[in-house]
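Regression test case RT-17, inverse folding.

Input:
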């Protein structure tokens, strides 16, 4: 992999990092609260060693099982039956031993945490209903046990389980809801980018149809008329065919003009259009363009820079999950330097895998069709320019230089 051409991994994204952070937040909450609260009691030498070992093992198993279930939930997978049974049994055991010994401050932590994890697999209304039922059952169980053990502080046996349910349930469901909203917004942003690309293709197709449709229809009619007149009136048939020839030439010229106009729009217009499309796709855009410099460039370099803007924007919309992009045009000696960068860089992709902006090397055009970053680099070279693309940390940067 050369220093001038590094590519990014299509698999990694800010959303993937956010998903990991959500999992760490949820699983870490369960592990830390259970570990710190139950750990002190498990290490207390005044408690029989066998009960401490049993409770410690049950607590550790609860933490692991909850972590596995949370990972499946974040990936939108259903709960594993084995881990589901393991989590429930471990939580019951982790609660039963302290409860029978009158440890009303810690017994409810494991079941409250486990219930909060399990309800994440339920629809929202059922999840809140189960949490409400747990908010009644656990305090009632604490109250009954406290009365049976003649516990003088009955209030502590009641409010502590209620506090655990209120602490775990809403917080964990809220974090899950935040992840779900982020995932849906990312899907919507990606769809907006795909729609923007499709809309541009449809616009060009419509323009091409408007030019070719009329010409082809008239050519077909005059050709049919000429065929009918070929034997009866050869002169008129020849006249019709000359008109067909003229119409075909007009159609060809207008099609070429359309393609040239599509590819040779002004650099300012390309950057303005790219900013509009990217903003519609949820990408924050910064454009820092020296308008006088852009206007002073010769037609060929300016058109090629416009194509670079279009190709980079198309690749960003198709393959990157960037949230910010910037277009900067500044003087560079006797010419100009255009820099296009975004924060969608990813690591570990192959050169031609279609990741990020580097898909222009192969994914969006071959070297001979006038599109793709490789082909554009070759075309810029013919006019004394240069085109490179590389990642820089979390940024992917396309740099084009042209002579003035």
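Golden output:
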């Amino acid at each position: 992999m050369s220093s001038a051409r590094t590519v990014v991994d299509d698999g990694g994204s800010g959303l993937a990092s956010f998903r990991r952070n959500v999992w760490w937040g949820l699983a870490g909450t369960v592990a830390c609260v259970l570990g710190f609260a139950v750990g002190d009691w498990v290490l207390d030498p005044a408690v029989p060693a066998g009960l401490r070992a049993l409770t410690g093992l049950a607590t550790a198993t609860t933490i692991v099982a909850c972590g596995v279930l949370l990972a499946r939930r974040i990936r939108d997978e259903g709960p594993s039956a084995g881990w589901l049974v393991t989590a429930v049994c471990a939580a019951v055991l982790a609660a039963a031993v302290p409860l029978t010994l009158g440890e009303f401050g810690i017994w409810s932590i494991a079941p409250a945490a486990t219930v909060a994890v399990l309800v994440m697999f339920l629809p929202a209304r059922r999840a809140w209903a189960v949490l409400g039922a747990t908010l009644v059952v656990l305090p009632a169980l604490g109250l009954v046990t406290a009365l049976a053990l003649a516990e003088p502080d009955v209030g502590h046996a009641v409010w502590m389980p209620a506090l655990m349910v209120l602490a775990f349930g809403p917080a964990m469901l809220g974090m899950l809801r935040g992840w779900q909203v982020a995932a849906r917004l990312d899907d919507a942003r990606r769809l907006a980018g795909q729609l923007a690309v499709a809309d541009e293709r449809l616009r060009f197709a419509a323009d091409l149809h408007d030019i070719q449709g009329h010409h082809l229809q008239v050519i077909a009619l005059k050709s049919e008329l000429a065929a009918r007149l070929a034997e009866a009136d050869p002169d008129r048939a020849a006249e019709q065919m000359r008109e067909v020839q003229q119409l075909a030439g007009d159609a060809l010229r207008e099609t070429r003009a359309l393609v040239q106009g599509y590819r040779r729009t002004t650099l300012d217009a390309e950057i303005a259009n790219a900013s509009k499309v990217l903003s519609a796709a949820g990408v924050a855009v910064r454009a820092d363009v020296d308008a006088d410099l852009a206007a002073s460039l010769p037609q060929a370099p300016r058109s090629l820079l416009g194509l670079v803007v279009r190709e980079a924007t198309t690749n960003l919309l198709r393959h990157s999950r960037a949230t910010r992009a910037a277009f900067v045009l500044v003087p560079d000696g006797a010419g100009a330097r255009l820099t296009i960068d975004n924060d969608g860089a990813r690591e570990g992709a192959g050169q031609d895998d279609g990741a990020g902006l580097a898909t222009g090397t192969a994914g969006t055009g071959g070297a001979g069709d006038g599109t793709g970053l490789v082909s554009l680099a070759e075309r810029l070279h013919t006019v004394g320019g240069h085109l490179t693309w590389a990642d820089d940390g979390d940024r992917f940067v396309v740099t084009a230089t042209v002579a003035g």
